[in-house]
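Input sequence (316 aa), recorded before submission:
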Amino acid sequence: MASEWDRIEALRATFAAPSLPGVVVGIGDDAAVLAPGAEPLVWTVDAAVDGVHFRRDLLSFVDIGYRATMAAASDLAAMGAAPRGLLTALVLPADVGDVELALLATGQREAADALGTAIVGGNLARGSELSITTTALGAAPAPLTRAGALPGDALWAAGALGLAAAGLSLLLAGRVAVSPAALAAVQSWRRPRAQIAAGLAARGWAHAAIDVSDGLAQDVRHLARASGVDVVLDAAAVLSPELRAIAAELGDDPLELALHGGEDYALLVAAPDGPAPGGFTRIGWILRQAGAGSVQLAREDGAIVAVVGRGFDHFA
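Predicted structure, token format:
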């Protein structure tokens, strides 16, 4: 097995990229150096831990690296920020050797390339479980926040809702994905895409934004509470044809998958009703009633019911 230094050198070779604007010193020194420029910096950090955020029996090492990187970058999309660099801290157990590390780094590099940025630094350590902590750096002239949604706004979504949860359900059941809907669902869970382009398109249009990592019901409630508004979701708009199809295959409730599944890394924005940038679908509307951050669902039969705000919680 290679030494720590040899592994760092291998990672530097994997992550090597053409020079990026704002990156003065990249991977290989004691720290990365970035020139912030005129725009505010947006910083976020996200951890992916074996047995909590992923299972090695369901993902390849390439997928693990890709998925962890995109999950962190999704927070940049929610702020309307353009990626400016990534850092990765890896904790490797004894059974993760040089081959596995190379595959993991390949997935991270693939994700960074797709995001139009690069991994510019990080850390390696030995530990009892595989852990990937990713720091994502971005820039935005006026970062979006969860606060700011206005009564009369529509709620818009970019990206699939519920498909990732359906893909995980399919994998846990040991079923082989054959249909187009099943293949799309598995891909949504294994290879999520941070909605960076949608976040950039929302600049100057959206009043508030959040990404969907813990489930639509829970994350839209965060936006509602931060903005002091109430939200009504449109069930017919939330349920895509692909989600209806895979839910029928699984015998699952598509609304359950969409509302409480999580790990979609879709982007939600509150923005004026009317014309919207490409890729956004209207899935609800913003009210100010009690202003208590309530979330309701307009069902396809016309009934309006309260939505329970449950989703993924690390400490529940």
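Checked by second reader. The first helix runs from residue 4 to 15.
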